[in-house]
Amino acid sequence: MRYLLFALPLLILVGLIAVFATSIDRDSSLVRSVLIDKPVPEFALAPVDGLDVPGFDAATLKGQPTLVNVFASWCIPCRDEHPLLEAIKAETGVRMFGINHSDAPENARAFLAELGNPYDAIGADRDRRVSIDWGVYGVPETFLVNAEGVIVYKHVGPLTPQAIESELIPALESLKS
């Protein structure tokens, strides 16, 4: 019994080391969402005050593929990602909606005035309720929704040129065929 008391912490330590060692090279953007292949959650977002684009709801996401990007003006990675979103919009013409996460309207307006607005609609998620329903871990996150309103792709963190080329564009092309 006495040896067990000494060995137990050592066994726990070895187990933790094994868990961390197997996770060390894991890509943090590959977070499997439980919402993949499921309809978008029911929601309705009002537009960001003072912007000339509408808000949107779950029904608006039906009819054609839509890229949904969760962003905030205070998010540094969102700034880095933003030119890539504009390039995606220009190159593919995909319908792009934004969920403005926990942001003051004047800050969201300033962010988009400075960096450009690739979004066809932007919903204000001031209380983060819709983001939680979508399973958002943090901003930015990007979802691809098919014409039936089903989430088919999720990217956690800022999009990169590599992720766009190897994951997002193929996912978009599969929806068009």
From TrEMBL:
PANTHER family: THIOL:DISULFIDE INTERCHANGE PROTEIN DSBE. One of its GO terms (molecular function) is disulfide oxidoreductase activity. The keyword Disulfide bond applies. The keyword Disulfide bond applies. Keywords: Cytochrome c-type biogenesis, Disulfide bond, Redox-active center. This is Cytochrome c biogenesis protein CcmG, thiol:disulfide interchange protein DsbE. It is found in: Cell envelope. It comes from the Bacteria. One of its GO terms (biological process) is cytochrome complex assembly. Signal peptide: none annotated. GO terms for cellular component: outer membrane-bounded periplasmic space. Residues 34-174 form the Thioredoxin domain. Belongs to the thioredoxin family. DsbE subfamily. InterPro entries: Periplasmic_diS_OxRdtase_DsbE, Redoxin, Thioredoxin-like_sf, Thioredoxin_domain, Thioredoxin_ResA/DsbE_sf. Pfam families: Redoxin. Gene3D superfamilies: Glutaredoxin (3.40.30.10).
